[in-house]
Amino acid sequence: MPHTPPPNKKLSRATSLDSPPEKTIFRIDTVDLDLPSTTNGPISTAVDEQSQDDEYSAPSVLFPSMRLMLAAMLCCCFITLSISSSNLAVALICMTSCPVHGYGGTLEWQSQQEGLVLAAQNAGSLVMIVTGMWADRLNGKWMVFVGLLLCCIGNLMLPLLASKSFWFAVLARISIGASDACLMPAVNSLITRWFPQAERPAAIGLISGGRQIGTLFILPTAGYLCTRKDVLDGWPAIFYLSAVISVLVTVFWIPFGADKPAKQICISSREKEFIETRIACESIGKRTDRTRRVPYGAMFRSKPLWACIFALICHEYPLVIMLQFLPNYMRDVLEFAPTKNGIIAALPILCLFLSKTFSSSLSSYLTTNMHLDKTFVCKCFNATASAGLAICIFLVPYFNKESAFLAVVCLCGAMIFAGLHTPGVITAMVQIAPAFSGIITGWSFFAVAWFSIGNKILTKYIVQSGSVTEWGMVFRVSALVAALPVVVFTVWGSADREWWAAPSSKCSVASFHRPSIRDRSREMSRATSSTSLGQQSRVSSSR
Hints:
Growth Hormone, Chain: A; membrane; 21 helices; mainly alpha
């Protein structure tokens, strides 16, 4: 019966759970395999080394690996999702009438109805509790395809049917939320199957950066289309454009996307072997394997897992304000026109994208080249992110339209600190249990969706007239929530693989403990007996 480490025991870095250290990111290093030599002598050794060098030679700089291509395609998928999620933030300004400022559209929606439309997207994300449970068993390529298809349907439904009934707009946003529920668990599951441990922080930063790229594109574009009534009557053009982008990304994803390296049509055998050998120690297994049991009991009792979920909720809570209500705040308090509103609202998003991209690469460098502990790096990034985000958000309400520049500076600073969460809690969620990353993602973002629904309804309940006092209350509550992970994740968080996520095979689990003296004596006796038998057979044959 193999020994199972207790829940509070930290696994050693020297165990077979960690993949070999990487020297480069998104490149193909030589695969070090201890294979027995079939021939002897210096000539055969030189030939083997030469053939191995030829087979595993470094690829060109312009196209390092197929992993980088897959990361770029997944980034485009998140661009599509971000465009579909953020387009309503600006479109809502010119869709509905605004009696306070005297501009807007023809839809007579109350403030509570607007809150329900915005919260409907998070209601659709609640499906993630189901998609997350199956993300590690279903084909990730087709889960991404379903997510892109739902984006297209939601973007077409809203401009065509919103004027007929308010509930059609709710259904359209639920479709966008369901798209997120398909994409997020599938992408995290694909990351564990395509990228070795050392590359995952950089891969997560590149892939999830698509959210900010999409928002950077759609906010100023939507602000411009709002003023162009001659282009498909203004605001409907925003959603038609989003639908077209969804179709284009889907067309490229179908032929080039793949569930795992072995199913990719363009990947080389060298890179496929490189990936498979690097992730083999993680016992991710096949999706069709129904014999693998999910350790639900151990997961529910895991303090690092709950610390990750708590920190993610506190991280996403203020981001809902920054991403969904920022144009409303700039309209009500800073009094920006729609076009200027879209451009200025994109600046904090740009800061978020640059921050998470740089910090993710820095995290990979610290763990790969500086050999720092993964948990230490994650905790440092996450604590800095939570503290800085809370301080910057807390300062925003102290500025009005006369000091709008300082308000925008604080908003940009808040997003710079928010980007440090990517090498923090976001990376830790993928690292603590790679084999169950889809399930963990489903649980985490299911909880995030519930709190986001409450956040949006609460914000619309507080902000009735758009006064500085009302928005100040919203930002201060967000600052308090953002500061909580400084204590919680720093004390209980972890980026090391949990004991319940360890390989289940006997040969892998045996590496957790040192063999006993009896086991070693048995192995020595077997080796001695086999050697003596070989010598006797050679003597008898010579006779």
